[in-house]
Amino acid sequence: MESWGFGATVRRWRDRVAPEAVGVPVGRRRRAAGLRREELAALAGISADYLTRLEQGRATAPSAQVVEALARALRINDAERDLLYRLAGHAAPGRDVVPSRVPPSVQRLLDRLAHTPVVVWDASWTLVLANAPYDALMGATTAWHGLERNAIWRNLTGRNGRVVHTPEERAGLEAGLVADLRLTVSRYPADRGLARLVGELRGCPRFPELWEAAPPAQGPARRKIIDHPAVGRITLDCDTLVVAQDDLRIMAYTAEPGTEDAERLALAIVLGTQSLV
Q1: CB-hemisphere CA count at 13 Å for 79?
Q2: Using CA atoms, how far apart are residues 136 and 147, in angstroms rounded to an integer?
């Protein structure tokens, strides 16, 4: 199988993915049994042009982030994921590295939340994935690269986007995120990427102080105000679900049914997903 090469492997595995299994609508005139190239690209958060070059062997050095995104979109098992990493020239992440793997069982859960704004972070608070309703609510995450994908860096540098915080809420959020990162470093002391992240964060003015501080007594506020450019301010419940075995944080944003906030959220999702098409 390894003789296929990375691009050919992705191409063959794309053909075997049933569109309905990954939430892709199937029309009557559809001829392809598996995923179309543009469909896989959209699921993985990469451009269709780049996927074309990968499959044709014209791009030969995909990043580990791209490999993981394709593995997730293709719904492959752990052994196949490890193979995909090797074909791309990377070592598969071991247990001493912060995991960013979304296992099939968790992906099925996310599929059931397809109409709810949901974002998934790893234990370093680096973005793993965001669904279309989340991007519609908060602004597109697809253009984030490098440190831009880290929630701690974004908050410490004022790039928290559309969420409205009081000074007290912001201070508590930043302290909580850094305290959680400190625990993550203690669990993954050999992760070089995590060490580089901490080194980069030390350049943020408040980070060194927060790194040495005691954890905050209270967790982050569960209700958040989103200042959406098209529909105005929306007050939402934000619940964080921790997948302990895979060290993931799933954040879901919801509103009480029948309220004005629920109506604004629905409108924001409709307007945002239309603009993302």
Answers
A1: 2
A2: 22
Neighbouring-strand partners of residue 242:
249
Which position has the token pair 């895979």? 246
Q: Render 82-145 in DSSP notation, one character per residue.
A: HHHHHHTT-PPP-TTS------HHHHHHHHHTTTS-EEEE-TTSBEEEE-HHHHHHH---TT--
pLDDT digits (tens, 9 = 90+) for 76-107: 988 999 999 999 999 888 889 999 999 888 99
Instruction: Tell me if 133 sits within 8 A of 273, measured CB to CB.
Output: yes
The domains of the chain, with CATH numbers, are: 2-87 (1.10.260.40), 104-276 (3.30.450.180)
User: 163-164 and 118-121 as β-strands: parallel, antiparallel, unpaired?
Assistant: unpaired
User: How far is CA 117 from each of CA 20, 47, 61, 169, rounded to the nearest angstrom?
Assistant: 20, 22, 32, 21
Nearest to 126 by CA among 205, 69, 51, 189: 69
Query: What's the predicted TM-score (pTM) here?
Result: 0.83
Burial class (CB in 10 A: 0-12, 13-18, 19+), 146: exposed
Contacts 24+ apart (CB under 8 A), 196-199: 197/124, 197/126, 197/147, 197/150
pLDDT, one tens digit per residue, over 9-41 is: 999 999 999 888 887 777 767 777 799 999 999
